[in-house]
User: What shape does this take?
Amino acid sequence: MESKAINIDKTIIIYMVLQKHDSKIFEWVCHWYFSENLPRCFPYMDNGGKVLDHRGNPIRPGRENPHLDHLLVIYDGDTLLNKVHELITDDEEELSKPVVIDSLEGFLSDVRLNEQTRDNDDDVTRFYNHRSGQMTVAYSPLRNYYAGTNEKQLIEKGLPLNFMSPDGDIPRTKIGKATRASLLATDRFRGRDGLHVNAVLAKTTEYFFGGKVVLFSEGRLLRERYAKAYDPVSNYLQCIECHYEPASDGVVVALKETKHVPVNPEKAVQYQLAA
Assistant: This one.
């Protein structure tokens, strides 16, 4: 793994920040996304490694990738499940019975089970109590409006200029509803009533090769990981991970790493044969 850090002190600070925000949820979602979800794109790759849509056209950055599943996990400590109805659009919607998930294997099993019932779509939000290890599902999207919130300012302060596309030619204001709602929720509930909301979102919007997994906290992007290329010979994805810090015009990269992520070979073959 190649790693590029600004300095060792900043690396230590970033590690401490990630510990504070319980980064295992981010790692769980990344494992599912890059090992099992992204291989859905493999049958639709052209010779240059670009992902094509169902009509055979390259999917441009900022466009929805129809081959990918969406996943959103909101997490905090003991108080989260008491506040769920303040975070979703349908406050009368029933919640699923909490299930204890305390390992990567348990998380993957839960997601695979829900894939069969289409519980990974845009209108489903998972809530995870990281202290008790309980996961519950609300069959409702997050709210995307809170009175008194300056949404434009929040987006400009909380996202980097190139969040929507690698070259930054797509404005940050073009973010989708799940990204907007995640950003708003982590800003609205920062420290309120002991609740510190974090959001991990597996995006279906095309970036380089597929979408990206992002971690929001305190109304800003804290961390993201996206695939840049796939090597079918080694069955590895070249992924870029960025950690961010606040700046005057948004957030800027504080640490950037290149990771080589193995793909689940069974999933890769399964999707290629199904095409």
In short: The chain is about 25% helix and 25% strand. The first helix runs from residue 8 to 20. The CA atoms of residues 28 and 58 lie 29 Å apart.
